């Protein structure tokens, strides 16, 4: 059983047109094994209850507070995928009770420990959420660094249309694991995004150090989203407004 992990790293985002716009922010995030969430509990971190740092199951999946492992296993079975391996959820934790996760990743393995699917769970600032389940139709393992594609069907930013598709790439065997999401619209490559983090052993000391370094982590995520939106608007990037949200959909091959 994999132990919980803390990762300290950065989020990078770069827009290529009609105006070049880029930023890099420091972040920390957690990776939690769904089969043993209790292993993460400690003096600073709690599961499904309040503490300086916490994780609440109602923030993910069906959003009703029910156990996440059976929900994800059922989703895998519906796609004809193995559900007998370890599932690890990567996300921002709640800080002082607040969290906003632009994207969370569920890493799903088979019994042999091979990665066979990744659920990219996307949230927008309008309260909507959507999951892109990435896998091979024959349930073959996903190779490290392999490019996986999915059509865009969910509204995220009012500065982008709901069209085109994503290219996901997971470089997990690096010293500093990196998750990439690049977006192409009808005109081609538009957005480049990367999330990277150096793993730290799970301990109260490591969590305290991360919190002291970034005490406004989750409030800062939301504040920075709106600040960057204002900067895009000032640069004259077209504003498209809010679009209809969609339920979980099978990704393209």
UniProtKB/TrEMBL annotation:
It comes from the Bacteria. InterPro entries: DUF1365 (IPR010775). Pfam families: DUF1365 (PF07103). PANTHER family: OS07G0153300 PROTEIN. This is DUF1365 domain-containing protein. It comes from Candidatus Accumulibacter vicinus.
């Amino acid at each position: 059983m994999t132990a919980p992990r803390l990762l300290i790293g950065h989020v990078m985002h770069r827009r290529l047109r009609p105006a070049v716009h880029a930023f890099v922010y420091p972040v920390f995030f957690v990776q939690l094994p769904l089969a043993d969430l209790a292993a993460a509990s400690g003096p600073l971190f709690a599961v499904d209850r309040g503490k300086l740092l916490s994780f609440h199951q109602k923030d993910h999946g069906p959003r009703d507070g029910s156990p996440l492992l059976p929900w994800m296993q059922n989703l895998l079975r519906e796609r004809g995928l193995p559900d007998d391996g370890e599932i690890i959820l990567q996300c921002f934790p709640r800080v002082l009770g607040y969290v906003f996760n632009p994207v969370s990743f569920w890493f799903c393995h088979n019994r042999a420990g091979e990665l066979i699917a990744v659920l990219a769970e996307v949230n927008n600032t309008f309260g909507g959420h959507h999951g892109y389940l990435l896998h091979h139709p024959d349930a073959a393992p996903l190779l490290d660094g392999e490019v996986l594609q999915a059509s865009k069907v969910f509204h995220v930013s009012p500065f982008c249309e709901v069209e085109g598709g994503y290219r996901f790439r997971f470089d997990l065997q690096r010293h500093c694991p990196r998750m990439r999401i690049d977006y192409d619209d009808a005109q081609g490559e538009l957005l480049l995004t990367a999330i990277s983090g150096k793993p730290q052993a799970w301990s109260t000391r490591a969590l305290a150090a991360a919190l002291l370094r970034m005490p406004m982590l989750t409030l800062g995520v939301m504040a920075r989203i709106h600040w960057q939106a204002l900067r895009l608007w000032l640069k004259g990037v077209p504003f498209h407004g809010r679009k209809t949200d969609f339920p979980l959909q099978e990704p393209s091959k």
